[in-house]
Every structure is written in structure tokens, then in C-alpha cells.
Amino acid sequence: MSRWRSDNLNEFMGYITCLGSAKVLVPATLLAGLYGIKKGEPYSLQILTSSLVAWGLLNFPLKYLFGRIRPDVVPALALEASPSFPSGHTLGIALVLPAVVFVLTGQRHRKVGALFTGVVILLVSMSRLYLSVHWPSDVIASLLAASVYWHFICPFDKPPASYRIDEVRELKKGSSV
């Protein structure tokens, strides 16, 4: 990827990679949570919280367990102090963004939300490689870990959190309080 480097692309990839950082994902999660509460679905906080917790529980322990050195094949365009494996930015965007987009869009724009999410996840993943701060296996492992997480949280027949939210709605309808 280093042969494609240019000042404009370097700057663009720098902005894209920030989308997978805690300084973007944590506030986005908090805002989505407030929106979910305002919408009358405080249970959407479960999916938001669980995705953030999963990110923290997977990212930092694995980084220090493996202690993998960052690539040095070409000069990196970003400074990173932590170990390379897994890609925390890729893992973060792949775990947290689907939850945020689901809470913000719900069922109404499910296909558009999924397309948007997929494109952003792909761009952040590519930015980590472009900036030469991760090995391809770091990014692939992060995407696989997020896929496994979403498979267990959200089987493919329903969107995230709809199980819990639908169950609560049914309980509310059935009670005569």
C-alpha cells in the first residue's frame, strides 16, 4: 500500500482511522444511548454497553498477551505505542458502530445502516494497513472476533437488540399495571 501514498490520501486515511478510536466511539455511544432513552427504548443501552465492554475486554488483554511488534517494513504514518495484535481501531469500529447505527436507525433504515456500517468498517480496516501500523493478520483477527461477537449477540434472522426490546414490549403489552 505504500506505493499509493500521497499527502492527500495520508490525510484522508488519518481522518478515517480516527473513526475507530475511543475518542470518537465512546462519545458516539453515549449520544446514541441518550437518543435511545429519549426514543423510549432504554433497553438499547444493553447493546451499546455490551459492545463497548466487549471491545475493552478483547482489545487490551489480547494486545498485552501477544505483545506483537508493529510492522516496520515501511515507515508508519501514525505513532502507536501499544502492541500490534489485535487492531484496536478495527475491533472498536466493528463492535461499536453496528450497535450505534442500529440504535439510531432501528428497523426503518436497516439496509442503508448495514451498508454504511460495512463501508466504514472496511475503510477503517484499510486505513490501519495503509498507515502501516498493523499487519494484515491484526486487522483480519479483529474483524473475525467482531463477527463472532455479533453472531452470538445477533443471530442473522433479527437485528441487534431486537430480541430484548421486543420481549420487553410484549411484557408491557401483557401487563395491566
From TrEMBL:
SUPFAM superfamilies: Acid phosphatase/Vanadium-dependent haloperoxidase (SSF48317). Residues 45-154 form the Phosphatidic acid phosphatase type 2/haloperoxidase domain. The chain crosses the membrane at residues 12-35, 47-66, 86-105, 112-133. Keywords: Membrane, Transmembrane, Transmembrane helix. It comes from the Bacteria. The keyword Transmembrane helix applies. Signal peptide: none annotated. CDD domains: PAP2_like_2. This is Phosphatase PAP2 family protein. It comes from Heliobacterium chlorum.
